[in-house]
Input
Amino acid sequence: MKTKELISTAKAMVANHKGILAMDESNPTCNKRFAKLGIPQTPELRRDYREMIVSTAGLNESISGAILFDETIHQQLKDESSFIDVLINNGIIPGIKVDGGTVALAGHPEEKITEGMDNLRNRLNEYAKMGLRFTKWRAVIIIGNDIPSQTCIEANAHTLARYAALCQEAGIVPIVEPEVLMDGDHTMERCFEVTEQVLHTVFNQLYKQGVVLEGMILKPNMIVPGLACKKQDSIDEVADATVKCLLRAVPAAVPGIAFLSGGQSPELASARLNAMNVRFKNKLPWELSFSFGRAIQQPALDIWNGNEKNVTEAQKALYHRAVCNLAARQGEYNSEMEKE
Ligand code: 5MM
Output
């Protein structure tokens, strides 16, 4: 195993206060986002949208790596360069989503298991040859009446660890993403309890399957109340609960924790990340970073709206969100930045 290389890639993914841009929406998810805005759901427009993102000048000042979707790596920019090369030339590490999405867990119809293990070893070797240096696999855990079940947590943790071990064997850094969804009216305390259980189970499996913790990145949810919960805790309460949970469950050997945004508004995601970095600066064993999708992209997507004429304005919005999160990583974000 190329352990040294894995460790240095993982460190680079969270270095210099930068974060990871998740632009790996599968076609159904990307189409859903386009449909909301009335944008035609074609491969050409998905390509145009992603070209708008990767050609944003200065993106590399705050973005260390970008997660692509398989369709994108087989497409080209208008000048016929590949998306992978454009990222590499801009000093952004290219990565790719390798999971195949979620389906109902057999015997547990309300819960999800992630597919995509078939032929994964060969796919990883192909991706490594193409220059992709990290991957992502997302597991989904739903909070509801009597769920998540232990079966669901264990099945997803086992799969995440199998995926991570295969990635490291291929010399690729795995981003391990167990996402506890924000949907529902559960409290922040319930999110804490479930996330802690999930993370303990995931790290137990990573250990059992020999995954080198120094050569991976964890991509968890923040500890937040459900979107429909009557009590919406303050930014500082979310920051404290999130760090408390992570300190209990994430080994110090992991170089970085890059949060997903999970449906939080872009401003709230930045503010919560900022609060963690303000309150726990220099006190944590891992870097606290971001791997946002919607919380970085949404304002830019709204402006772009499928129209070439809007590219420059959309790129400004994307650049702005990336810079806000660079500041949040240093505990230097504030709402004044949103007026700039
Ligand atoms: C960008 O969306 C990623 C792929 O999602 P699908 O498999 O549903 O198409 C997703 O895994 C994303 O990376 C994470 O959920 C983080 O994105 P958010 O929007 O939650 O920050």
The chain has one domain: 3-330.
